[in-house]
Amino acid sequence: MAARPKRMGAQKLPALSANQFSDALHREAPVPKPKHTNEQPQQLRVNRVAPIATEGVKATPSAAKEPKAAATPTVDAAPPKSKKKKPASAGARRPQATPDPRRSSALEQRTLPQPAASAETPSAASKAMNDLKEEAIGDYGVFVQTRRCEELCSNLHLTMRDIRKMKRKYDANDMYNSGEVNQAEFFFMINEERRPLTLGIFQLADVPVTQKFLSFDEYLLCVVQFATLTKPELFQYVFDLYDEDASGALDEHEFAKMSLELQSNQFCFPRNVATAIKMLEGKEGRAAFVPDDGLVDVGEFMKFARNFPVAFYPIFNMQKNVRATTLGETRWSRITANKVKVQDLVGHMRRHQGAVPELTVRERASSVFSSEVWAIRKRAVELYALEMMQRRHLSTEGGNEEAD
Q1: Domain 229-318's class?
Q2: Distance CA 51, CA 48 (A)
Q3: Average pLDDT over residues 168-184
Q4: Which of 42, 158, 202, 354 could pair with 153 as two cysteines, CB 3.0-4.6 Å apart?
């Protein structure tokens, strides 16, 4: 009987041991694809350091230097991969743990020891405190930025309507919409020319004459203070303006400079002003205020100003222009009158040990319709209390110095 041909698939395979069978299974098992994680760039860096040959890929010259066991695709070669991943992944976290340079600078500022307040840096600390004190508390919204200007307007009982009105005129004369006005625009606003007499208005706001631009707060400090000056204060303003050495008296040079400015031809009645000045200089036979020592002190100057106010017409005219170009003569006259009332009340309290006078019939009637009377009295009490506090402080300092 003829033998049947054997099929190829029916060939008998040799018997395999348990180890050989497990090795065969591992060879046929599909290799899992590596997961795409954040550690992938680090794996590439590890491969560059110690590349491992896999099936179907020829080993590089650097890989040839490695042991031959690393090039065979056996089961024992898999664990070294996992072992090398751990240090690579651990090393990969180091650059991630490095703080952001922007945050590190902030951390350094927190951690670095700050310089203690000592005698070496008193000016910086005092300057910082002064800057904080100068900030406005918002009585007039965003219009007023400094505390000094805010206190000035509040003490004179200027309303928000007054501030807004002056702000509109300020912005209308800001030709370049820069938020500030230069000196030419400022003098155009108050209808005056730039000359030594008018430049003195900047001293009220501590603004240097060389400063080119003025903010709205500086504008308010100049205008509000000058518009509310009384007649004696205007005379004192002229005296202080020409008393360059602050000696309390005008010498020949200072007096001649003042005379020339007041006798300018651009003012009205220049002859009347010239006559009054000559009387003060002693060039007229009717001169009654000629100083014996050639110096004009404050008392002599004030006596002459009260008897010959026409000599100071230029300064009166300047105040008139400042008032007319801001809130108007009527409004400023009322504000100045309230200021005088406060000064009178403070003087009464000084003479009567802090006692406030009773309300008059007119004040009682007006207090029914307006709170202005009570605001004036409140301001007078505050000023008197502040004055007494300063006196007590000076007395305690004097006592401590005597004890030392």
Answers
A1: mainly alpha
A2: 6
A3: 91
A4: 158
Average pLDDT, the chain: 73
DSSP 66: S
Q: Mind listing the pLDDT tens digit for each residue in 315-330? A: 999 999 999 999 999 9
Tell me the mean pLDDT in the region 339-353. Answer: 92
- 138: its two tokens: 């918002």
**pLDDT mean over 72-96:** 45
Tokens of 109: 């500022």
The identity of residue 398, as a single letter, is G
Measured N-to-C along each axis, helices 231-242 and 252-262 cross at an angle, to the nearest 10 degrees, of: 120
Cβ(193)–Cβ(266) below 8 Å: yes
CA torsion 282-286-289-293 (nearest 10°) is 40
* CB 297, CB 249: distance < 8 Å: yes
Higher pLDDT, 108 or 280: 280
Which residue type does 154 have? S
Q: Which residue has the tokens 């100049």?
A: 222
pTM above 0.85, yes or no: no
Q: What is the pLDDT of residue 262?
A: 77
CATH topology of domain 136-228: Recoverin; domain 1 (1.10.238)
User: Which residue do the tokens 């070294």 mark?
Assistant: 80
Give the Cα separation of 73 and 297 in Å (integer).
Answer: 113
Q: Where are the alpha helices (DSSP H) in 50-182?
A: 61-64, 78-97, 101-111, 122-133, 147-155, 160-172
Read off the tokens for 182: 């230069």
pLDDT at residue 243 tops 70? yes
DSSP letters for 8-55: GGGPPPPP--HHHHHHHHHHHSPPPPPP--TTHHHHHHHHHHS----T
Q: What is the DSSP letter of 61?
A: H
In which residue are the tokens 């108007």 written?
Answer: 328
Contact between 311 and 277 (Cβ < 8 Å): yes
Q: How confident is the model at residue 371 (pLDDT cuts 50, 70, 90)?
A: confident
| 215 φψ region: left (φ > 0), alpha (ψ -120 to 50), beta (else) | beta
Distance CA 333, CA 322 (A): 12
- Per-residue b or e along 211-233, where b marks 16 or more CB atoms closer than 10 Å to that residue's CB: eeebbbbbbbbbbbbbbbbeeee
Residue spans of the domains in the chain: they are: 136-228, 229-318, 329-404
- Name which of 345, 246, 335, 248 is nearest 295 in CA terms: 248
